[in-house]
Structure formats: C-alpha cells, structure tokens
Amino acid sequence: MLKTTWFGPTTTLEPKPLIDFKWFIIGVTIFIVSYLGIVPLAFLIWQSFSTPQTMTQAAEFTANNYVRAYTDPQTLVLFYNSFIFAAGTSAFSLVLGTLLAWMNERTNTPFKSLFYALAIIPLIIPSILFTVAWIFLASPEIGIFNLALQRLFNTDYVFFNIYSLGGMIWVEGLHYSPMAFLLMTAAFRSMDPSLEESAMMSGASIRHIVFKITMKLAWPALFAAVLIMFVRSIESFEVPALLGMPAGIQVFTSAIYNAIKRYPSDIGLAGSYAVTLLIITSIGVFFQSKISSSGSKYSTMTGKGYRPRAMDLGKWRYLTAGIFIVYFLLIVIIPFLVLVWSSLQRFYSVPSVQAFKTISFENYSYVLQYPSFLRSVSNSVLLSIGSATTIMLLTAVICWIVVKTRIRGRWMLDNIASLPMVFPGIVLGVSIMILYLQFDIGVYGTLWILFIAYLTRFMPYGLRYNTTSMMQIHKELEESAAMSGATWGTTFRRIILPLMKSGFVAGWIYVVIVSIRELSSSILLYSPGSEVISIVIWELWENGQYTKLSALGVMFIIALFILVIGMQLFTKRIGVKES
Amino acid sequence: MRRTAKRTSVVSMLMAIILMMSILAACGNGGNAEPASSASSGTETKTDTANGAAAGPAFPTDIDGLVAYEGDDRKEKLIEAAKKEGNLSLYTSMALEDMEKVAAKFEEMYGIKVQIWRAGSENVLQRIVTEAQAGRFDYDVVETNGPELEALHREQLLIPVKSPYLSDLIPEAITPHGGWTATRLNIFVQAYNTSKLKKEDIPTTWEGLLDPKFKGLIAVEAEDIDWFAGVIKELGEEEGTKFFRDLVATNGISLRKGHTLLTELVASGEVPYALTVYNYKAEQLKNDGAPLDWYAIEPAIARANGVGVAKNPKNPAAAVLFYDFMINEAQAFLAEIDFVPTSNKVDSSLNDMDIRFVDAGIILDEFDKWEALWQEIIMEKK
Amino acid sequence: MLNVRALYKEFPNDQGETVKAAQDITLEVPEGKLFTMLGPSGCGKTTTLRSIAGLERPTSGEITVDGKLMYSSEKKVFVQPNRRDIGMVFQSYAIWPHMDVFKNTAFPLEVGKKKLSKKQIEEKVLRALHVVALDGLESREATKLSGGQQQRLALARALVMEPKLLLLDEPLSNLDAKLRERMRFELKRLQRDLGITSIYVTHDQSEALALSNQIAVMNAGRIIQIGTPREIYEKPGSQFVADFIGSTNFVEGVVESVVGEGYILAKTKIGLIKAYSAQEPVPGSKVVISIRPENIHVSHERPTDGNVAEGQIDTRIFLGEYVDLQLKVGESLLQARTHPSLRYPAGTQVYLGMDPEKCIALLDAKSPPAEKIVVSKAVS
Questions:
Q1: What is the model's pTM?
Q2: What residues in chain A have their Cβ under 8 A from chain C's Cβ atoms?
Q3: Is the ipTM here above 0.85?
Q4: Average pLDDT over residues A451-477
C-alpha cells in the first residue's frame, strides 16, 4: 500500500530565499550579544585609562589608575581576602548545591517533589535581609543560636561568630547554594541513568557511581557553577560590608566601592581593579570552552534508551531525607521565620513573650500602601519576566553556536557574553547611562534602559545555564530533525528548546529572581514612572525600616515561590517527562 | 551566500561593532556642551512670549532673571509663572516617604505636580553630572547632602537664588557662594543600649570613652569620615588624632555599614554603644519603645542637607518657588517629621545644643587626607 | 539514483593537523538497491554518508540524488539537509525523548515542505508504524520503548515522509545479537518491498553480506573495492578486503610461473600452491595467498586434484554448527572449518585439499607482517 505512493511527483527545489533564516537569527543574536557585552567593556577599559572628569577638568589619558591600583601593597591583602572568601564560598555552595541537586534528581529521597521550589528560597531573600537574619541568628552578642546554647550549657562560650571569614563564607555560601542547585539540577535531569546503571552493574557502589560517573559527566556544569559563583562572590558587596567590616576583613569590592563613591567619582580606578576580574573570568571561560568543544563527550541525552529515572538509595534515603529536613530547618525555615517574626514587630527584638504581645500586621499594610509600590511591582514583574525570557532565548542561540558549530572565534562570543558578569553593577549602570544619553534613541528615562541593563547584567548567567544543558544534547537528535525536513528554526523551537528545558527553566528562574533584586545599576537608571521593587527594598533599608522590609521580603518570597511552582507545573507539559 | 555566511567569523562581526561604537562615541563627545545651552534658550524664548503678552511690566521668565528678581511682587509672580509650568522635577536623597509628604504639602499649596527621583546622595550626584555631561537637564531642583551639593556647585550645575527667606536661617545654613542652602541638619549623636549600659556609666566627654570598661562595646558607621574630621578639628588636630589612636588601642572600634543598621543594632543589643547615629532615627526607635537612648557629647557634629536650583531648569519658576518653599514654609513641617530644620523661626529640641557644622567645601578639598587618616587609624590599614 | 563523484572531505583537528576523512569517493547506486559502505571505524564511511545527507559539507566533489544536484564544489551548490528529501536512521536512533511515538513519527510530516491535513498526517503515520510493526504503540512515551522498538520507530520516522533515498548509519549496532539478526531480515524485506534506494553503513561484515546488493569496502578514507557480496567475499582485491570480510589464512609466497587463465604457481612454506590471480604478476614477485578456512578440506586420504598439503591437527574447537581446526603444516598454522561430523582428534596426521579457484593470490603493496602466516580474527 505504501509502495503506491512511494515516489510521488517530486517537487523541484524552491529558489533559495534571499536571507537564510538561520543565519539571519544567528547574525542578529551575535550582534545583540556583542553589542550588549562590548559597550560596557569598551567603557570600562576606556575609563580605566582616564582621569576623573569634572566640569572644570576634562578627562585625560593616564595609566596611573593601574599604577595606583596595583602598586599599593594593600591591594594584595584585599586580593588575598577576596580570593579566600570567593574560593570558600564557591566550594561550600557548590558542595551544598550539588548534594541537594543530586538527592533531588538522582535519588528516591522522600519529599523531594516539594524540594525544587523550596530550595531556592535563600536566593529569593534579598541579600541584605539574609545577612541581617544571620546576624540575629549567629552573632556573638545577640545571636539566637549562641544565646540558646549558652543557656543550655550555662556558659559564656561563643559558639558561633558570624563576624569572621568563616561566617562570611557560611552566609554567602548558603545564599548562593541555590545557584549551584539550579545548575546541577539541570545537569542531572538530562543525564541518562543507564550510564549510572551500567556502572552499578559493573559492581560499583553508590559512592563510586557518584564520584566516578555522575560527577564526571556533570563536570561541565560543575565548572560553570564554580566559575559563576567564584566571580559572583568576588564582586559581592553586602556580606563583606555587613560581616567582614566589623571583623576588619576588607575585600576587593570595598576598594571598588570607595573609588566610585568619592567625588569626582573615580570610575577609572574602579575599572582598573575590575580588569583583574575580567582576566580571571576570561581564563575561566576559556577553559569552559575547552570543555564544551570536547563536544559529544558530555552529551548524556542521546536518542536511545534515554529514560530519566532516579536511583534507589535503599535505606540510605532516610539519611538523605534527614539532610533535606536539616537543610530546610536551618537554611530555609529559620531565616524565613526570623523574617516573619521581625515583619510582625515594630523594631527587631529577640523573641520573647513580651515581644509576642506586640505583633501586628501594620508593616504589611504599610508596604502595600507605600508610594509607587504597585507600579514598582508591575514594572519589576514586567522587566524580570521580559529580561529572563529574552536572555534565555538569546543565550540559547549563543550557546548553540558555541557548542554545536565550528564557527571560528566562537570562543570570543562566549567570552563577550560572559564578561558583563564582572562589571561592578554601578559601572555597568554608568556606562549604559552614558551610552544612551549620547546616543539618544528615546530609551533614556524609560523602562527600556533598565531592560537593556538587565539583559547585559544577567546574560552571562543565562548563558551558563543554557550551555550546561546544550552540551548534554546529542547532536544526532538535532540532525535527525534536519533529515526530517525541518528548518533550522523549527528544529530549534521544537527539538532543541524542549530538550534543554531543565537548564532553560533553571536559568529563567534564576534571572527572574536576580533581576527583581538588581539594585546597583537600577538605582541610577530608573526614573519617575519606572521605579522597580529593588528600589523600594533599598529605600526601606536606607530608612532603617527593617521590620517593614521584612514584611516586603516575606511577601516577596511567597510570590516568587508561587511563581516558581507555577513555572514548574507549566513546564511539566513540555520537555522530557520523568518516569 | 550561505557559504560566505558560514565563513563570517565572530571576530569580524565584533570589529564592525567596535567601529560603530567608536563612531557613536565620537559623535557624542562632539556635541557635548552645545545642546545644553540650546535646550535652555529654547525654554526661555517660549515662556518669554507667553508671559510678555499677559503682564505688562517685565517679570523675568528665564532662570537668570528669576533668581535675581527682588521686587515686592516676587511671590505672586513666581506662583503665577510656576502654575503655568505646572510641573517640577526633583532629584533627592531624602527618604522617599518623607519627601512625598513634603512634596504633597507643596502640591497642596501651589498646585504644582512634583516628580520625585530618589536615590542615595552619591547616586544623585552621579546621575546629575552624567546627564549634564551629555547635555541633558532633567532636574529642576536637587535636595541632598551638603558635600554632594557642594560638588554640584563646583560642577557649575547650580545657581544661587536671591530669596527673601534666607535671612530666617541660621548663618551656618548659608553657603558663601549661595549655590545651595542648608535646609535641615543631620546631627551625629551617640546612642547606647539601655539594657547593656546604665545611664550613669555613659561618658559625657570624648576622653571618658577611653575607660577600659568600654572595651569591645564601641562601634562607628564605616564611612563617617566627615564626622571624624569634625571631631578631630574640634579637639585640635594633634589632640584629636591622638584621641582616636588611643581609643582604638584601648577599646577598639568596630565598623558597621549604614547608620540605620547601626541604630537598629544598638536597639537589638548587638552594638552596646554607637558613636555616630542620626538623632532622628535614634529618637524614632526610642519612641517605639526600643531599649535605646541617645545623647550628644558636645559640641555635636552636624552634617547639612540642603537644596539647590538647577542651572538649566525646564521649570524655572517652579524650581525657585520650591527653593523658597523649602527654606520657608517647609521648615516647620520638617521639624514635625523629626528633622532638625535650619530656620531660626522653628523651634527644635536641638536648639540649645552646641553644634559644629561640617564644612562641605572643606570636606571635598581635604577628603583624601581625612580618608587616609581614617583608614590608618579606624580601619587599621597598614 | 545516487551519484557521488570524487568526493573529498578534509578538516583540521584540535592539534591543527588535517584529517583526510574521505578521499576520492566515487560511487553509483542504482534505483531500488541497497548499497553498503563497510569498513573499520574511522574509515570514512560515516563521513561519506553524512556528506550525502548534507550534515557535512565536503571539501570538494559532487553529489547527485535522483538527477538533482545536491552538492557540487565546482558549481558552488549545497542543498541544506532539510531540503534534500532524504530519510535517515541514526546510530543512536535519535528518538526525541520529549515526544511520544506518534509525535516522533509525525514530525517530518508536520515540518516538511508539503502541507498536509491532520487526517493525512495521521493516516501516513499509522501506515508507517504498521510497516515497522509498531501498531498500537502510538501514544507510548518514546523513552519507554525497548531498543528494538526504538530502532523501528527511527525507521518509521525516516520512512514516513517517503524519501527518495534512505540512509542508515549502523542502525543495528545497538541491538543484541538475536534481535540484530531478526531486524536484518526485516530491514531487507522492507527495503525490497518498498523498493527504496538505501545506503547502509556498517562495520559488521556479516550484516553487509546479508543485506546488500552492493558493497563498498572502505579503509583510511578510500574505497578499496566495490562489488556484490559474493565478489567481495570470493574474489577480494586486496589483502585488506580479504582480511576484513570473513576470516582467512594468509600464506606468503613467491611466484614461480604464470600458468594462464588467471592462475599462477607460487612457492610457499606449505608447498607449491596454484592460485587464482586477477593480475598477472612477474615470476619472482612476492604474493600473499588468501585461503578461507571453509575452503580447506581436511581428510585422511590424499585428495586427487587441487593443491595438497600435509599437516597435523594442533587444536580442535567444537562450535556446534562446525568445528574449527588449527592445522600445523611445517612451521605454519592454518585454520580450517569442517563439518562437525569430522571427528579427528588432535594430533591426527591429515591431508589438506585446497581448490586453486578458492586460493586467491594478492599482490598487496602493504605486505603483512613477514614470516608468520596470519590467521585473521574469527567471525564473531
């Protein structure tokens, strides 16, 4: 029957379209990403060779910024502190995030279905709040943990001191662990379990499988996580300022901050400091691209027998469930409760019967009636969802080029898209501000300028998330679509995007959260009418309305929590289903 | 076609982008100063004709004339002109909640809509300077910290106003150049936690702090270099430097970022004794029932916040009107919401306190010196 | 139907060296035939296949499918793979894990040039699934199929758009032995019934022999020999082919004389051997004579004609369907395959009879390791 229709009338080849859609999209994407990445880069480098500009004194060319930045022996100390802090933070959060992701994705630990949304709560809490919550929990003077243990053992011994390098690493590491969790989840989710099963059949223990197989296969994701967490913690500000400063631990970012906030603002000096970060990141990206060009080595999602399935831990699953519960209590629930507690108070006080009598919901109604609050919320929602979606789509194309093609110079593309990661937010803000003031296309003073800033700032993260997933997709899955007659666009939309869902969604959630939180460039770029929620957070913080900020934080967490769960449910319908 | 596309390397695309950008930058720099003047002259001519037809005797409509006008009808004419403009753009670093209240008062009185852009003082400065360098003047009035206003004055972005209300202010509120005027004071006071320290133990002199019983109890905000300079100048440079060195050596000073956090930490008991908190914040917490009290080792150091009118405002009359409003009608209201106003006419709880003002100009000029000293002594950098 | 002319594919590797993946590939496949490219891994067969598919862009050459130019370096033509109308089954099957069986199969119809109605698509999909005997599994998650079912799904997906040409890249290599054998027959039947021109790539010589109308044996980027399975097996043109296809004994020798009608006499370590030779070698030149194990007849009595050698049974391996004997002739070891009914114990003195027609003299430039008689790997 089939035979009769086998050779139908063969259609003649249609004339070639003027511009091939594929190259059009690739060209546009490369253009946008390069434009976004190069603008601040050019600005930073140009500034780093300039003296500060004032009305009376024009900027001049100078190499003095570098001399000043790198001949000061103090710089070495700052670098050392920053390095220890960043290395500790990324190691800690990587171990934590990876462990949680592994338990969540690769094992049959109980309650894990709840976990994905809950695990990213630490990321949602604004970092100022998160840090302050930990001051209240573990400071030597008033930390609840210390007070409780001291009472229990009837001693004066200080059990925890949050004002230390260890304390800084702990808080920052916890705060960043969801970033590692999301990345590693994405990696584990698209991993073919038969690779692990075959190891198990070869007589390997679970420990062996994890270290010899699972982690080896997840190596690109691990590397990506280390890279972004290292850079992020080097350029992080809140934890060093709130916890390091009282202990006399100065880091690299304080030098950048000090250079910028003086008058005239010494962006050049800040820029020359940032160049070091630039170099570190470039090296990291270079090595990452080495990994990605080893190509199919890590493509664990092949078109054969690929079945996402969890590993049976046996009785060990009670241990992993225990780890979950402890993590929850310690990292998620307690800081969250501290927030809830303080959001019900007029000023922060240690929980007591007396304080309990004064609780009220005043702070919540205050926040809801805050000037421009509703507009800020809608602006933030619009911006964060818009920029997250745009970033994930743009970087999906970029990482496709980097991972799947052999175009020359693709490493450069990867690097350019990754570099904005290291620009101090304020430098990025100023560079975008200057560009659109000079190049007046009506963007300045609108939401669009914030949109551009967010795209630039968070593009690197989207790229890392997407790349991790992209590397796992076996190229034949895509080639078979081409052989089926699908155009590149169709293949991308119907095959590649659904297959990289886990990384795409994780990156999307991450970008949504961080762009809602973004402050350092938003504060320069917003205008009346384009206020965003992070400005409100900052405002409350600046005015010392700590308890009201907690109320906002609680609402924030609940809203994002719902968003994440919704996203999870929504994407269950597309992409690879688990069995 | 396809063949060439595939060969197009990323590098060549980047080259194109860099080239494009350098052209853009070049264009931008060329037109740097020019649009500024044209923008303002545009506004001038427009309002000129509109007003000239309505009223006979020439009431100036351009900013230069407005700020210099001293006629008896100044107030009515100003209101009339400002109402025509209808809008006012204000850049401020005052807490939005407070500024909204102030602006609401202004709107209520004159029917002029105030658009507020609020950020930290250093961002206010940064934004205005960057905009001005590109020839954009979106602000009519700016309300922020003294040193930032002083910097704006040096950037030639503010214009002095000859206002009849200036005579109501304390002499320290008026800058010699008149580019900006202080409207309220942030007074650095000392605060302590009442459950950790007793009132009778609290020192009333700087030297009293050297008592070893305060070991490990004292904290200061991490960037209060102007306060530091103020205290040292008050004590005499040699004496003052020695005092801080001794204080760090005997009792140590812990640094905290942010005045409000520092105040909150005093309330929570984390910091038993703080050297630099703002009086109004401490008062607020105390009134809320927090175990905290404050006082001042006199003379107290004060930092002025003020207001200045833009050199090229879009709404010049409204800008001048708002300036008048801030140093006149708003003063009593500022006192109501716990600020310390600079008007002699308004009574404040701090009127009888011995206060020394931080001179914003000197702070700007000597910043490097004081910062170095601060870092050496307080932050203990070697 | 398919014409490939002077195809070259070269690319630089990570170290910057040029990899010559395909060298001067020229082949022609008539309509409705199954053509196999056979060779060890890295021989260029997959590169050639992918060039035909359009997944690789060759360095130079020309590819025509059904009279239409798909690629030509001279005329600067390169048709994108999705416009070539070629079906392909991948080694990994490339079943999309986010779609069910039906969606996987319907995909080519949904995205193709021809717009089809929902009903038409459904009809065609069901027909294709029926052809590969996957009826009733339409709504099954693709990832929950067994290996054999996935393989058939991949085939259905390649067939559903009724392509002019079907490319199969080691489609059976991921199946277990039993299933592989069954699928081999099914593939052959399907291909013949549908009459679809197919290119088959494999490294498994028995698969190639079983399925193909024609085989191209490839090595190091080049086609070594093209012929029917029988020609390839019985008249290998080179030592490589003889070795790669089936198992064989190589006996080195020196040409004594040419006896005409394509035969030579060669002096070897197992005596004077009369062997078939496609070329006419000069007496005194070195040759290697390939004798397949099943062409060595072992008996107690001395055969009356053909080549005869005397030897001793060294080892004896019972394999059920046959018995493999290792025979010691002088210092050389030869392998012979005999019927299980032959029950000579090890150590027995026997005669070896070899038909000159089945002894193939090869003048291979690249000589095998000298001295020893090479017994190639046994058929697995």
A1: 0.82
A2: 1-3, 5-8, 10-11, 13-14, 293, 301-308, 474, 476-477, 479-488, 490-491, 494-495, 498-499, 501, 574-577, 579
A3: no
A4: 89
